[in-house]
Amino acid sequence: MSGSLGNVATIARVELRRFLREKGNVFFVFILPLALIVFIGLQFGGQTGTQLGVVLEVEDDAARDLVERLDAADGLSVVEVDDQEGLTDLVSRANLSGGIVVPSGYGAALEQGERIDIGFVGRPDPGSGSLRAIVAAEVAEQTVTTAAARDAAETLGASVTDLLPVATQVRSELPRVEVTTEQVGGDELTQELQALGQFDLGASSQLFLFVFLTSLAGSGALIQTRQYGVASRMLSTPTRLPVILAGIGGGRLAIALFQALYIIVLTAVAFRVDWGDPLTTGLLVLLFCLVSAAAGMVLGALFRNDAQASGAGVGIGLVTAALGGSMVLLDFFPEGMRRVALLTPHGWANTAMAEIVRRDGTVADVAVELGALAAMAAGLLLLATWLLRRAITR
Amino acid sequence: MEALLTCEGLRRSFGKLTAVDGVSFQVGQGETYGLLGPNGAGKTTSISMIAGLLQADAGEVHIAGERMTPRANGAKQHVGLVPQDLALYPDLTARENLDFFARLYGLDRDRRTQRIDQILEVIGLTDRQKDRAGTYSGGMKRRLNIGIGMLHEPRLLILDEPTVGVDPQSRNAILESVENLATDGMSVLYTTHYMEEAERLCDRIGIIDQGLLVAEGTRRELIATIGEQDLVRLKITGDVTAAATACDQVEGVSSSDAEDDQVVCLVDQAASRLPALLSAVASADASVAGVEVKEPDLEDVFLHLTGRALRD
């Protein structure tokens, strides 16, 4: 790389290096976004499945078989709990969807066809009823199979234990009556949100919040470059003003992209966040980063004091994030506020991201949002270039 | 001497203020040229036009035959600028700062490494090259600031008041460095408002005041403009202005100016004129508290030419 392009890269690289060297930036770029994504995911994220707590008062084959059956049930996972008190506590605090207590003597009662009660612990909500029905169905299935083995054992004079695997095998080969479910009515938004991963919701909204916030707060570095006299000294080198401006802009864009990429890759790998179609998301994030970088440049050109610029940047960043649906879902906004949201880049970006992640949107589906962001980026870049040109040559 | 730098009728205004008004001078190959003038005289504005930072309203600058403008990349390769204020990144190390500017000057990797090592050696920062510039002392930062200007081996090094705010030890080191540059054949344009620096370093000096180049020449030539006269300083008790006016009437006195609590006179044969001067002061209802007679220097030349002291 040589000439003007090389100089653009040189200036951009130094901007990025200086940014990463600032300890405060490390917190805002690396730590805080992830902490908030995790926090939002844990607080508000959809559960990855229904968790059923099981207390085994005795470890017999029948009890173990029941646990395996429940664990294999669609959408259900079993968590073993030490005692009933602990189970009650976990369910009441919503850490578990519900729980059962398998009493001692369960296996023997099943083999002998005697009555035995399995205790169910649940909260007073519709989910508990559904969970109880699943547990009852699995217990009934186990009871029927054991009863078949017991009847055969009495007829053949063999032991129930020996014939239980055979009965299980026969049961699995018998045709079943399956009940298919079609959900009608209800809230489409709720269904969409339930289909999301636990951290999906927080990841994209926090990405937009922090990329924009970091870009604006980082505008102080731009002012420092002027204050240090480095910007005007660059003009004494064989580097033209447009190249210097492109380098400064490139540096801001590199910082925004770096942070965005960090959040995307880490949340995708560590939290299995679904970012949708890579091309569409990539385009959206690139355009949002361009808008953020340009907004940071505008702020850096308007202010003369880096502390003022950073302070104003944080304020503007938080307000636009709130208005643009990065703190509360746009779907929950009243109609008027949704229109206001479209004055912010976050509003367009969050709308597009909802389409991409919740409804498998492609570039064509979010073309309007991408166009709006591109227009914002172009307008802000033009303004930033004009203001910075004045500020540097003043 | 062949001219490396030629300034012709440079003019630049900021609103209603004319900062530089028709400045013309030349700097020869290997010459150290000083622009001497008080703060606000137009030195930095002149330098900004010469280095291609500012577009001149009128006039032209040529360096090594190439016209300098803010877009003249070719001409800028010949110039190294050391601004008055530090112009470096305090959050980068000395080496990183040098590397950054070396890249902007287009030095390839091998030359970059070689020149950075050389410059670090010259400015005495080899041992501290990996420390951030923000942790350096004022003198070390100044040296790094100068080093950046010399990085690409320019034919003309422009130093804009490089010793302002520097401790005496670092100041001396900087002056020695400039002397060495001149010895190496580099042309130097040096601005200062310290007369001693101009006298020590510069082959020729241009005196600039209120945007005008009021005189130019070697130290000897400039002092000769005053004539074969002595400088008499009379410390006055009483009305200094009235005393200066009275002294101006004395025969053999070519100029008499009030400066703080002193009257400064240029006088033929000072020893024979002193009684008349003392009488003149007494006639102005003032008295003389002290007398100093000396040969004139650049400070006196400036005073003679502008009616004001350099430090005003």
CATH superfamily (homologous) name of the largest domain in chain B: P-loop containing nucleotide triphosphate hydrolases
Q: Helix/strand/pairing class of chain B, anyone?
A: alpha/beta
Helix count, DSSP H or I runs of 4 or more residues of chain A? 17
Distance between the termini of chain B: 34 Å
Which CATH architecture of the largest domain in chain B is right?
A: 3-Layer(aba) Sandwich
Spatial strand sequence of the major β-sheet of chain A: 2-1-3-4
Give, in order, the helices and strands of chain A: HHEHEHEHEHHHHHHHHHHHH
Kindly report the greatest chain-chain contact and the residue count on each side. Answer: A-B, 26 and 29 residues
Strand proportion of chain B: 25-35%
Radius of gyration of chain B: 23 Å
Order of helices and strands of chain B: EEEHEEHEHHHEHEHEEHEHEEHEH
Gross morphology of chain B is elongated
Q: Oligomeric form of this entry?
A: heterodimer
Number of helices of chain B: 11
Structural class of chain A: mainly alpha
Could you outline the blueprint of secondary structure elements for this entry?
The complex is a heterodimer of chains A (394) and B (312).
Chain A: H1 3-21, H2 23-44, E1 50-56, H3 61-72, E2 76-80, H4 84-92, E3 98-102, H5 106-112, E4 119-122, H6 126-156, H7 160-173, H8 188-194, H9 200-217, H10 219-227, H11 230-235, H12 241-270, H13 278-302, H14 306-323, H15 335-341, H16 345-358, H17 367-393
Parallel strand pairs in A: 1-2, 1-3
Antiparallel strand pairs in A: 3-4
Chain B: E1 3-14, E2 17-28, E3 32-36, H1 43-50, E4 58-63, E5 66-67, H2 73-76, E6 79-82, H3 94-104, H4 109-122, H5 138-150, E7 156-160, H6 168-183, E8 187-192, H7 195-201, E9 204-209, E10 212-217, H8 219-224, E11 230-237, H9 240-248, E12 253-259, E13 262-267, H10 270-283, E14 287-294, H11 298-306
Parallel strand pairs in B: 3-8, 3-9, 6-7, 7-8
Antiparallel strand pairs in B: 1-2, 1-4, 4-5, 9-10, 11-13, 11-14, 12-13
